[in-house]
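Example record

Each entry pairs one chain with its bound ligand, tryptophanyl-5'AMP.
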Amino acid sequence: MNNKTIFSGMQPSGVITLGNYLGALKNWTELQDEYNCLYCIVDMHAITVRQDPATLRKSSRNLLMQYIASGLNPEANIIYYQSHVPAHAELAWILNCYTYMGELSRMTQFKDKSSKHNENINAGLFTYPALMAADILLFQTDVVPVGVDQKQHLEITRDIAARFNAIYGDVFKIPEPYIGKAGAKIMSLQDPSRKMSKSDEDVNATISLIDDPDTIIRKFKRAVTDSMAKVTFDEQNQAGISNLLNIYTAITGETIKNIEREFEGKGYGEFKAKVAEVVIEELRPIQQKFEELSKDNAYIDNIIKENAQKATYLATKTLRKVQKKVGFPPLIRSK
Ligand code: TYM
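Structure tokens for the complex follow.
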């Protein structure tokens, strides 16, 4: 343990995908023994897009169980719901006042989501990065393991923190992104120019963490490839095959060169079947553990309760410091 802090989170806006798993969750489990870790279910971010309340509640609990089922130890890590720790919202408000409209309007996630949901371009969607900065900065985080698509949000977090520190002294630690070598950008199986996304309407485009083996085999069989008929890593001309190679290497740890060699002279059918097989074997224990956890309500409730308290304790320390720096009057405690 190096005494450094990791913070990361996922939106419970649907069932998480193989992209979320390989780009983030799998790295979290690998880093958990070296760092003090907080892994959040960012339900407050999720409502920037309209959610059905009952579904959101269920997805949030499922996500928490998927964190644990994937190997995160809930005794050693702080796994909690963002909405249970009000300091997130309180710091986000303050940081909003140190974040510029210009920088927010350059965020690609904002541009993407506002074009997809043009009936609901709300202020929360716009100021989303200030809440994300609050998540990270509340815990004096050193490292934030994420997929490539969150890199821009990490940059704005660093800018906001540096701006605040320049005015008030060293209040926030400046966090570093951690982006894994493999799996940091898993693409759609149906359109390998777009990232795999849990909100994709085409079910064949994504592998979900709870897909059963037959579904996984079927989806990989249908995955878009090309007519070059050779398993080589070439993102320009063979984006689909390159994506499958990325998935394979992220799971097995085998080098791309070795995988190319293994499939030299073999057809796409054989390669796809092998990728499906390693994905099925990777997800099998996670799905089994998830089933077990789903039956143990008291255990999960206890994790939710205890971890919210731990996160609140840590977050409040930074929040109080920030409130003092900006000039809010101290609380008067009753004797
Ligand atoms: P979210 O919920 O979209 O995604 C969760 C994590 O999964 C990664 N990811 C991917 N990685 C590889 N390939 C893909 N196709 C893919 N799709 C998603 C994301 O990069 C992310 O690491 N804003 C964040 C949630 C958040 C957060 C935070 C993250 C809120 N506060 C503080 C880190 C720190 C988001 O929407 O992630």
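The pocket of tryptophanyl-5'AMP is lined by residues 7-11, 19-20, 22-24, 42, 45, 132, 135-136, 144, 146-147, 149-150, 153, 184-186, 195-196 (CB under 6 Å).
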